[in-house]
Amino acid sequence: MNKGVIISGIGHLGLILWVILGDWLFAPKDLPAVEVAEVSLMSGAEFEAMMASVPADAVPVEVPPAPEPQPEAPPPRPEPEPEPEPQPEPEPEPQPQPETEPEPQPVVEPQVEPEAEPVIAPPSEIVPIDPVPTASPRPRPRPADRVSPDPVVAPEEPVETAPEPTPAVSPEPAPEAEVVEEERPETAPEESGDILRTEATEEVEEAQALAPVASARPKPRPARRETPAETPAETQPETPADTGTNDAVAAALAEATAEPARPSAPSGPPMTGGEKDALRVAVQRCWNVGSLSTEALRTTVVVGVSVAQNGVPDAGSIRLIESSGGTDGAERQAYEAARRAVIMCGSRGFPLPPEKYEQWKELELVFNPEGMRMR
Predict the structure, then answer these.
(1) Where is the composition biased (Pro residues) (predicted)?
(2) 15: confidence class by pLDDT, cuts 50, 70, 90
(3) Which of 207, 204, 206, 201 is nearest to 188 (CA)?
(4) Which end of the chain has fewer CB atoms at under 10 Å, N or C?
């Protein structure tokens, strides 16, 4: 309802009530009655004629004057109360004189006897204790090469064929022997005086370094085995049986050590921060986390995907690389949400630079509750 209409209605209603009830509530008081005396007017001639008709001997009766009302005596004035005599002002009390503070006496500091200097005992032989290493995100230090007291040249072609006879070396090396030499480092080397450093030994040494009570010193070196002398092998006569055995061993080793060629490192200029942010924003637009459970929102998943040159991801190559922070059910929910985001937003192709295809043809995307990033 309009505010003006309400105010107007209230004003009109008050006016109507004033007209109806005003005369009754605010009626004027009755005035006292005015005394009226009837008189007649006469002229001077009429008055003289009336006086002439009066007899002369008539003595006018003197009308005694009405007694004047005596004024009422004024009420006696109240006797003034006697004013109290002014009391003498009390004499001000003498202010106490401030006590003079005694002069501070100098504090006598007690003489402190100098403490006897502690006698430093001669340093005893302290056995250095390796501090307990703790795991840290710092990069692994490069292990130092260990040198055995007696340098022994590791054989170029160590073969774990202790029971088998040593193959004879032909004067003209066959091409199969060269293949064996190239693929030989993949086989386990024969133990010798030197400890060859491989990835497995580095992991073992790292585990030993992180152990809380283990010493970082290496284990005792195993007994050194003498390598087979090459000179006798060269002097042995070549036989058809030895040649066949050598070919069989070379073929077996070549088949066992054959591995698919590892993908080379990505070539070309790396992706800039702006290009990575553009990819992150493109995928994050389709990442719907509203349907995830509370536990799934606390789960971090890393998803790998292969991308074609036109920027469209291969749906069949999407895989879960790793996860953390939740149960199997939460991990599955988080992975499905990430997979849908990659497929939906990549249907038209991701905004990636074509000249850097070697850098982004294999992507690893990290989906966590705080956001998404490219690893």
Answers:
(1) 62-77, 93-107, 164-174
(2) very high
(3) 201
(4) N
CATH of the domain at 288: 3.30.1150.10
Q: How far apart are CA 88 and CA 100, in angstroms?
A: 35
Question: Which range, of 233-237, 288-292, 358-362, averages the lowest pLDDT?
Answer: 233-237
Question: Please, are residues 364 and 338 in contact by the beta-carbon 8 Å criterion?
Answer: no
Residue of 291, 253, 312, 282 whose CA lies nearest to 374: 282
Residue with the two structure tokens 């990069």: 139
- Asked, for residue 9, whether it belongs to a domain, the answer is no
Q: Average pLDDT of 353-361?
A: 90
Query: Are β-strands 300-306 and 319-324 bridged in parallel, bridged antiparallel, or unpaired?
Result: antiparallel
* pTM across the whole model: 0.32
Residue 336 lies in a domain: yes
> The dihedral of CA 312, 314, 315, 318: what is its sign?
negative
The residue range of the domain holding 286 is 273-374
Two structure tokens written together for 240: 């058809």
Q: Which residues contact 318 (CB under 8 A, 6 or more apart)?
A: 303, 304, 305, 339, 342, 343
Q: Is 366 helix (H, G, I), strand (E, B) or coil?
A: strand
Tally of domains within the chain? 1
CA distance 351 to 312: 10
Count of other CB atoms within 10 angstroms of residue 267: 9
Residues in the chain: 375
CB atoms within 10 A of CB 58: 7
Any domain includes 305: yes
Q: Which residues contact 268 (CB under 8 A, 6 or more apart)?
A: 355, 356, 357, 358, 359
